[in-house]
């Protein structure tokens, strides 16, 4: 049975990953060892079977004993330990949530319902590094990749509404703390129906701007009752790193642009952090290569994979199904607000939302592990899972 080392399993993405692996019985296929940079010697997570004590994630020899390493530890860890492992002669498969290796020539961004052929070609070439993509990009492509598959997209713009959880657990905590402190500031006024709403508004603004809210994780500005129209570092020319990823990573996942036979599709983004806890939403403007009837476009989108759901473009369905509250913790990707724009019949609008901790983070990693285990590429593999039950990825 293949040996798999799992690093960073106590964090937010790692915790969701373990939940999904338990739900899909992935642990039936492997002998897992859990690694930690701070909790070596402790107990691993409950996975329904005995596991060895937690190992030291800084021990290159212990890490190298695994056929596959799956990391949710973060970019700094990858930058330090991935080169050390390769220099020590480890030739196993590296699956990673961090962005560090995404654009490397010897790595593939994984989102198998969208780019299974790209992954299989990489496996055939002997590529060893398989990296999860940007959370917003992955959720977007899960929703509308049917249009790319049908070669209908000339160009696209994405206006994103990204949740606090995209920054990590501390961002979520900070947002909730901000909301609590703002509420406390006006609690007495809210309890009095006769209080003036403009006075409440003045107090709220005062609390947002007096410097007393915790704002370390959001760059010195509040997110509660606010939005932040810039995510990640400045790439120059007025573009943030998050916006750059929209075009660069989308095309790499799709197998387009530099290094591929198909030209890149222009994709531009404007990325905004909003005060939701979880799930990223996106408003899309798509320039089609030709005029296609709207019902046919909806059918192409709906048929692309088993998780996409086309939502009728009416008020009731949109409000009920196209929200973070409706999607959090769920695997499906709704796509709605589909309509032709007044600028021409070849212009399509769409709105989509997805749980970025699932399809945007943990799920592509989990599925890449199963692809490896079923591919016959892993040296110490078993022919069947320990339970005797075989589940094909994608089923």
Global geometry? globular
Strand content: 15-25%
Helicity level: 25-40%
Largest sheet: 7 strands, parallel
Write the element-wise H/E pattern from the N-terminal end onward: EHEEHEHEEHEHEHHEHEEHEHHEEH
Low-confidence stretches: 380-395
Number of strand elements: 14
Number of helices: 12
| Mean pLDDT reading | 94
Describe the structure.
This protein has 395 residues and is α/β, with parallel strands linked by helices. 37% of the residues lie in helices and 20% in strands. It has 12 helices and 14 strands. Strand 13 (333-340) and strand 14 form a beta hairpin. Helix 1 crosses helix 12, helix 5 crosses helix 8 and helix 5 (135-149) crosses helix 9 (294-302). The model is unreliable at 380-395 (pLDDT under 50).
Quick summary:
The protein is of the alpha/beta class and 395 residues long. It has helices spanning 12-23, 60-64, 75-87, 112-125, 135-149, 169-191, 197-209, 241-254, 294-302, 315-321, 324-327, 358-375; strands at 2-7, 30-36, 55-56, 68-71, 93-96, 107-110, 129-132, 153-162, 227-228, 267-274, 280-288, 308-310, 333-340, 347-354.
Tag the structure with descriptive keywords.
single chain; 395 residues; 37% helix; 20% strand; alpha/beta
Question: Any chance you could write out the topology, listing elements then pairs?
Answer:
Layout (H helix, E strand, L loop, with lengths): L1 E6 L4 H12 L6 E7 L18 E2 L3 H5 L3 E4 L3 H13 L5 E4 L10 E4 L1 H14 L3 E4 L2 H15 L3 E10 L6 H23 L5 H13 L17 E2 L12 H14 L12 E8 L5 E9 L5 H9 L5 E3 L4 H7 L2 H4 L5 E8 L6 E8 L3 H18 L20
Parallel strand pairs: 1-2, 1-4, 2-3, 4-5, 5-7, 6-7, 8-10, 12-13
Antiparallel strand pairs: 8-11, 9-10, 11-14, 13-14
